[in-house]
Design goal:
By secondary structure, the chain is an all-alpha fold. The chain has 2 domains: about 1-85; about 110-205, Methane Monooxygenase Hydroxylase, Chain G, domain 1, CATH 1.20.58. About 85% of the residues lie in helices and about 0% in strands. The protein contains 8 helices and no strands. α1 runs antiparallel to α2, α2 runs antiparallel to α4 (about 80-100) and α5 runs parallel beside α8.
Length: about 200
C-alpha cells in the first residue's frame, strides 16, 4: 500500500499538470475574446477583410483550446471556456450577417445550444448599433434590414420553452433582447417620420 506521502506526491504532480494547462487555456481564452472584439469592431467600421482575419485567428485559438481540454472535464466546461465560446459565436453571427445577410445556423457551428442562444442575444445588441449607425447616415432601409434580423432572432427565443438550467438564462436574454428591439423599433419609426416630414417640407419649399 502506498504511503500518504506517495499519494500526496502523485496528487501534486497531477494538479501541477492541470494548473499548467489551465494557465495556458486561460491565455488562449483571453486571446479569443480579444480577437472577437476586434472582429466585431471592424464589422462596425465596414472593414470585413480585417474582421475576417481576426475572426479566423479567434477560431484557430478556439479549436486549439478545445483540443487541449477535450480529455479534461475539470476545465472543458469552465466558465472562461464558455465565455470564449459565446464571444466567438457572437462574432461569427455578426460577421456572417454582414457578409451574407443571413443568420448563421446553430447546427454547423459545433458549439453548445445554450452558448449559441447567449451569443445570439449579444449579437442583437451589436445589430442595434448598426441600426443607429444607419440612422445617423439617414440610411433608413439599411436600418430596417438590421431590425429584421433582430426580430428574427427574437422569434427563435420565443419558440424555445426550456428551463434556464438548460439554456443558460434564456428568459433573461429574451427579456433583454425584447427591450432592445422595442427601443430600436421606436428609434427607427421616429427616423422614418422625421425623414417623411423633411421630404414633405422640402417639396413645399
Amino acid at each position: 500500500m502506498k504511503t500518504p506521502e506517495q499519494i500526496t506526491n502523485s496528487l501534486v504532480k497531477e494538479f501541477d499538470k492541470l494548473n499548467d494547462i489551465r494557465e495556458q487555456s486561460l491565455k488562449l481564452s483571453r486571446e479569443i475574446i480579444k480577437s472577437c472584439s476586434k472582429s466585431i469592431r471592424n464589422v462596425h467600421r465596414n472593414n470585413l477583410d480585417e474582421a475576417k482575419q481576426h475572426l479566423d485567428e479567434a477560431n484557430k485559438n478556439y479549436q486549439d483550446l478545445r483540443s487541449s481540454l477535450k480529455d479534461i472535464p475539470e476545465l472543458r466546461f469552465a466558465g472562461y471556456v464558455n465565455d470564449s465560446e459565446r464571444e466567438l459565436i457572437e462574432a461569427f453571427l455578426v460577421f456572417e450577417f454582414e457578409k451574407t445577410n443571413s443568420l448563421l445556423e446553430f447546427e454547423g457551428m459545433n458549439v453548445s445550444a445554450s452558448n449559441y442562444i447567449q451569443g445570439l442575444g449579444d449579437a442583437i445588441g451589436e445589430w442595434r448599433r448598426k441600426v443607429l449607425d444607419s440612422l445617423r447616415k439617414l440610411e433608413i432601409e439599411e436600418g430596417e434590414n438590421y431590425l429584421a434580423i433582430m426580430e428574427a432572432s427574437m422569434e427563435i427565443f420565443n419558440e424555445l420553452d426550456y428551463p434556464d438550467a438548460l439554456t443558460g438564462g434564456l428568459r433573461r436574454y429574451a427579456d433583454t433582447a425584447r427591450a432592445i428591439i422595442e427601443r430600436t423599433r421606436s428609434d427607427l419609426t421616429n427616423a422614418i417620420v422625421s425623414e417623411s416630414l423633411r421630404k414633405e417640407l422640402k417639396d413645399k419649399s
